[in-house]
From TrEMBL:
Belongs to the S1FA transcription factor family. GO terms for molecular function: DNA binding. Pfam families: S1FA (PF04689). The keyword Transmembrane helix applies. Residues 51-66 have a biased composition (Basic residues). This is DNA-binding protein S1FA. GO terms for biological process: regulation of DNA-templated transcription. InterPro entries: S1FA_DNA-bd (IPR006779). One of its GO terms (cellular component) is nucleus. It comes from the Eukaryota. The keyword Nucleus applies.
Amino acid sequence: MDGKDFAGKAAAEAKGLNPGLIVLLVIGVPLVVFLVANYVMYVYAQKNLPPRKKKPVSKKKLKREKLKQGVPVPGE
């Protein structure tokens, strides 16, 4: 093998990054950052935010549930 030929190939490879690696970095790094940030925010919210309040159940739904259970509804 010729020494000049090897040096020329090494210089050409060192000049530019592999296009596949660039795509992987451009897509992969933001994706990993996004997922890690979501996880951190989720853990923070679980520790610091109060639990969500449940919506009040309507009287109509309460009446329907009591009828299903066979409990007499007051006022009828």
